[in-house]
Design goal:
GO terms for molecular function: protein-lysine N-methyltransferase activity. Methylates ribosomal protein L11. The chain is α/β, with parallel strands linked by helices. Helices cover 33% and strands 32% of the residues. The protein folds into two domains: 70 residues, Alpha-Beta Plaits (2-Layer Sandwich), CATH 3.30.70; 157 residues, Vaccinia Virus protein VP39 (Rossmann fold), CATH 3.40.50.150. It contains eight helices and 14 strands. The termini are far apart.
């Protein structure tokens, strides 16, 4: 059985709270007008309350909870998932959304419940950076999507002309989801790895790494990421909260990366670095 945690908060806090709750292990989320509904297994109720109470010490919101019976989770997810538009160039939609013939690129992405739908801001910025990169003639022949989730960034990179695209995620469901979404878009990714960065076979260094993860993973694996990039290569990093930007900047600068561009959206940051 699941428990639904109703969190009432200011709009600008919704995605920030979702990010923290996702990192803590909550299963799925529905964004509502009042804030967010967060779902987690009921047998860990004390743990989830502790997580929420710790967040309340840092952010202002109210919450309540109730047990929910088993239900059609696909319907729950579909009711809360909206298409993502990146300007007039890209539409990311689920298979049950209508197509749009007016956009330059369209991806059909069906995320599973485990990944939630709360990170539209980071997805948007990473897609924007990626499209601009190729539009200005970026090399990007070999690409690694680190923490691929649904596979959207890997699939988009391949669509935009990358010769080789590998993807890795520690979650088995993410790997399955990436495989399914690649097939749905008639895209052949070169290697999809279940595991950590260390599990990705070492070949020639990549021209481009896409890492839409979170602060802790970026800090822990920055040195390893550097070793996977050739000199002069590019790294796009996101999943970074506004308040964590300086720490990420300092860390990657100390590793020999140079900031090329920063983007901000709804309390989140996406950063473009060049490896020296």
């Amino acid at each position: 059985m699941y428990t639904a945690y109703r969190i009432e908060c200011a709009p600008e806090l919704t995605e920030i709270l979702i990010a923290h709750l996702a990192d803590a292990g909550f299963d799925s989320f529905l964004e509502e007008t009042y804030g967010v509904l967060a779902y987690a297994l009921s047998n860990d109720h004390a743990r989830w309350v502790k997580v929420i109470e710790e967040l309340k010490a840092e952010y202002t919101f109210n919450y309540s909870h109730e047990a929910v019976e088993e239900r059609n989770w696909n319907e729950v997810w579909e009711s809360g998932f909206a298409p993502i538009r990146v300007g007039d160039r890209l539409l990311i939609r689920a298979s049950f959304h209508p197509a749009d013939p007016l956009v330059s690129h369209e991806l059909v992405i069906d995320p599973r419940m485990a990944f939630g739908t709360g990170h539209h801001a980071t997805t948007y910025m990473m897609c924007e950076l990626l499209m601009d990169y190729y539009a200005r003639g970026g090399v990007g022949e070999s690409v690694l999507d680190y923490g691929c989730g649904t596979g959207v960034l890997a699939i988009l990179a391949k669509r935009l002309g990358a010769r080789r695209v590998d993807a890795v995620d520690i979650e088995p469901a993410a790997v399955e989801n990436t495989i399914d979404n690649a097939a749905a878009n008639d895209v052949q990714l070169d290697e999809i790895v279940e595991g950590t960065l260390a599990d990705v076979p070492e070949r020639q260094p990549y021209d481009l790494v896409l890492a839409n993860i979170n602060r802790n993973v970026l800090l822990d694996t920055g040195e390893a990421l550097k070793l996977r990039l050739r000199s002069g290569a590019t790294a796009f990093l996101s999943g970074i909260l506004e308040q964590d930007e300086d720490r990420i900047l300092q860390h990657f600068s100390s590793l020999g990366f140079t900031l090329q561009r920063r983007e901000g959206r709804e309390g989140w940051r996406a950063l473009e670095f060049k490896r020296e």
